[in-house]
Amino acid sequence: MILNNNEESSCTIFGDLRYLTFDKFGYSFHGTCNYILAQECSHNGIDPQFKIIGVNSGKASLTWTRRVIIYISLFNGTFFTIHLLPKKVIREHTNIISVPHVRYNDWPEYRAFEDPTTGHIVVSFKLIGLKVIWDGKSFVEIILTKRHQSKVCGLCGNFNGDPSDDLISRYASSSNHSISHFARSWAYDISCTQHQTKRNYLNYVRFA
What we know:
- Keywords: Disulfide bond, Glycoprotein.
- Helices cover 3% and strands 38% of the residues.
- By secondary structure, the chain is mainly beta.
- It has one domain (8-185): Mog1/PsbP, alpha/beta/alpha sandwich (Protein Transport Mog1p, Chain A), CATH 3.40.1000.10.
- The strands form 2 sheets. It has an 8-stranded antiparallel β-sheet, with no helix packed on it. A 7-stranded antiparallel β-sheet has the order 9-8-7-6-5-4-15, with no helix packed on it.
- The protein is globular.
- The protein starts with 7 loop residues before the first strand and ends in a 23-residue tail after the last helix.
């Protein structure tokens, strides 16, 4: 796959925790912790410019993304935080905001609005080249511009145009083809007990 200069790519998380990566590799994983969906990867100890966390829940035989947290790195070493909550509620740090909402003249600049066609919440960081779309229930879409190609990692893969190497675990440099090992390595809180749902969360499948 060759990406042109204007191309974006998206990663989608939906339903009973199905994932379609930036490079269009599909798989299912039913973990019930918080997971790094996508982040800027750094190998020199510098905080990533952004990271997006999916907060999962499980009940009986069903698992889903209950909310999403967006972290944007600030110049003082802390993070600007946006929470995408159930029922399309948006929280900026501790403040609930309404849409449409625009933040400008201060880093990070972004706008949040409701898509008139789908009704989904869109949070757009134009200067970063990042959009996060949330339906308020379980559907998440992360869109990145080409500038992030081969520079990201997480459950959404590495965005290098090659779906065959998307399963790179958090502490490895090459693809690990065990979906369970790959996905569990991206738990945001490594101390989280990755509970099994009634249908064992390790029952994963690849899908087209």
